[in-house]
Design a protein that fits this description.
Blueprint lengths: L3 H14 L4 H14 L5 H11 L3 H9 L9 H15 L4
Helix pairs in contact: 1-2, 2-5, 4-5
C-alpha cells in the first residue's frame, strides 16, 4: 500500500511542474523538488492552497509586481527568493 504522505508529495510535485505556463513550471517545479519533502503538514496545506491559484495571479505575486494575499505572502516570498537564486548566473 502506498504511503499517503508520499502520494501527497508526488501529487503536489506533479501539480508544481505542470502548471499551464512554462514560467510557473520553472519556478514552482524546482522549488517543490527542493522543499516539499521537508515541509510540515501545515506548510504543505498552505502550499496546496497556493497551487489552487491561477498562474496569471501567482507570477505577479512571486515576481513582486503586485501584492500577494497576506496569508500566502511569506511562502511566495520564499519561493521568489529560491527562484531568483537558482536562476542567477554564476560567475
Amino acid at each position: 500500500m502506498t504511503d499517503p504522505v508520499e502520494s501527497r508529495l508526488k501529487r503536489l510535485k506533479m501539480r508544481s511542474w505542470r502548471r499551464g505556463t512554462k514560467e510557473m513550471d520553472m519556478i514552482l517545479g524546482p522549488y517543490a523538488d527542493a522543499h516539499l519533502a521537508g515541509m510540515e503538514a501545515a506548510r504543505l496545506d498552505l502550499y496546496e492552497v497556493l497551487l489552487e491559484e491561477n498562474d496569471q495571479d501567482l507570477y505577479p505575486w512571486i515576481s513582486g509586481q503586485t501584492a500577494p494575499p497576506e496569508r500566502l505572502a511569506p511562502l511566495l516570498a520564499e519561493i521568489g527568493t529560491f527562484a531568483r537564486a537558482r536562476l542567477r548566473p554564476t560567475v
